Amino acid sequence: MSLYLMMGLGYGVGNFEYDESVSKADEQDTFEYTSREGNFRFLYGIGTEFYLVQNVENLFYGVFLGASLGYVYDKVSKREFYSLFARFEAGKDWWLRNGLRYGAAVNYLIGSFPDDFNSSKDEHRAYGCHTFGLTVR
After folding, report:
1. What is the pLDDT of residues 7-36, one digit of tens each?
2. Dist. CA 44–CA 70, nearest whole Å
């Protein structure tokens, strides 16, 4: 098991869709926002990893499960937002030398961002994303 501080920087391509209907007195406004452009992400936080196999000669040596919590800055098209996140991952590390390793992992990140389309309410919207990461630790 290991504990760590994390910092990440990434650029991704995917779909970001947001639909909202807001009722104001007699009228109803609908906001629709869709972006298929890339997004920039910077995140930092703390995490833990648990290595499932401790035997160096085992084929599954270096396989781990991890979880982390932190703060993320996302920029999608012209929208920018900051939020808390939780990330879960599964991956494999290979050791180069004592203390230095590289690896690959599949991650699932969940968080929320402020609902700035309707400024009269203090609401947040949940989001989730899948990522694949290559690491040097």
Report:
1. 888 777 665 555 555 444 445 555 455 556
2. 6
DSSP structural state of residue 121? S
In DSSP notation, 46-112 reads: EEEEEES---TTSTTTTEEEEEEEEEEEEEETTEEEEEEEEEEEEEEEEEEETTEEEEEEEEEEEEE
pTM, two decimal places: 0.70
- Count of other CB atoms within 10 angstroms of residue 74: 22
Task: Give me the residues paired with residue 23 across strands.
Answer: 28
Q: How far apart are alpha carbons 47 and 66 in whole angstroms? A: 7
CA pseudo-torsion sign 60, 62, 66, 72 = negative
How far apart CA 16 and CA 33 sit, in angstroms, is 8
